[in-house]
Amino acid sequence: MSEAVFFHAGCPVCVSAEQHFIQALDPARYAVEVVDLGKQKNRIAQAERYGVVSVPALVIDGQPFHINFGAALADLK
Question: Which residue ranges does the record assign to the Thioredoxin-like fold domain (predicted)?
Fold first, then answer.
């Protein structure tokens, strides 16, 4: 099973992306974790290690995919 982490900041752009992209992932293939960096600031460093520079972003097996633009990680610190 592949791992997916959806990082967001709770903004309307992020919530909309979460609703669309997370539902599209096959739960039989992906273990999905949703991380709200607005509330879980201790996870920002993890997002940076994956190469995430803005949210919303979906990381699948360590590969970041940036979706639209809600906020830069620097703005969340």
Answer: 5-65
